[in-house]
Amino acid sequence: MATPRQVTVVTGGGRGIGAAVAVRLARAGHRVGIGYERARESAERTADAVRAEGGEALTVRLDTSVEEQVDALFDQVTEAFGPLTGLVNNAGISGPLGRFLDVSAEEWDRIFDVNVRGSFLVTRRIAPGMAERGFGRIVHLSSVSAERGGGVFGGVAYSAAKAALLGFSRALARELGPSGVTVNSVAPGLIDTDITAGRLDPERKAAMVADIPMGRTGTVTDVADVIAFLARPESEYLTGVTYDINGGSHIH
Q1: What molecular functions are annotated in GO for this chain (predicted)?
Q2: Is 158 an annotated catalytic residue?
Q3: Does residue 1 surpass a pLDDT of 60?
């Protein structure tokens, strides 16, 4: 069976890691649907960067926890580019790095709504078509916090939500594998983005970098390159795995 033209949705694609992923996928020949919630101008700049790579991009406003917006994203990207072959569930929020005993139920629910329910809704909308056509690449953005138990950004709720995505990915990989759809995760460590800038005081950041064997923080390109690798048609024998992108800070 010939590999279909790659059409990939990147949620949270307007800034940070998501923007880098969109551009990197375009360089690999993907048509890219960029979901964004608030950063419209940034999303349009990302789309311009995709076009500068010779690619095609469409921006769509998206709160992943709202089912009607998920449907609208699917319809618009499909109409513009054709059947979807890839999905990068990047949209997510963290939360204050505080004690579990101080977390409100509302805060817990919001973090799970965006990180977990949102990924569920988008995947549920896109995956059936992939399975029917016999090809698909799904990548979830988890975090080193899910594996080491917090300690970077966000607190217990964030770590729990990102850990839920690992279980979701692995179980879904078993179910969709026979249909030609792979499902994998990446777990970034300390990554420099415009979103995380300023959230760590210099002394704490220096101490964290000192504990990274590679001696530096990660870049959005470090993460985007791994995701682009997992999204290749040639990566068909990789499924249910988690790629740690942390410079060796969490070796297990």
Answers
A1: oxidoreductase activity
A2: yes
A3: no
Q: Which band of pLDDT confidence, cut at 50, 70 and 90, is reported for residue 89?
A: very high
Q: Whole-model pTM? A: 0.94
pLDDT tens digits for 98-151? 778 788 999 989 999 999 999 999 999 999 999 999 999 999 999 998 887 766
Please identify which of the residues 36, 158, 237, 243 carries the catalytic annotation. 158
The H or E element that residue 89 is part of is strand 86-89
Average pLDDT in the chain: 92
Q: Do residues 38 and 115 make contact, with C-beta atoms less than 8 angstroms apart?
A: no
Classify residue 43 as exposed, middle or buried by CB count within 10 Å of its CB (0-12, 13-18, 19+).
buried
Do the Cβ atoms of 245 and 226 come closer than 8 Å?
A: yes
Angle, alpha carbons 102-106-110 (nearest 5°): 110
| Cβ atoms of residues 162 and 146 within 8 Å | yes
**Other beta carbons less than 10 A from residue 79's beta carbon:** 9
Distance CA 48, CA 192 (A): 22
What backbone phi and psi angles, to 5 degrees, belong to 244? Answer: -85, 125
Locate the domains of the chain by residue range: 7-245
> Is 146 in contact with 159 (CB distance < 8 Å)?
yes
Please name the residue that has the structure tokens 């699917």: 74
For domain 7-245, give the fold: Rossmann fold (3.40.50)
C-alpha distances in angstroms, 103 versus 2, 131, 142, 148, 163? 50, 39, 21, 20, 18
Burial class (CB in 10 A: 0-12, 13-18, 19+), 141: buried
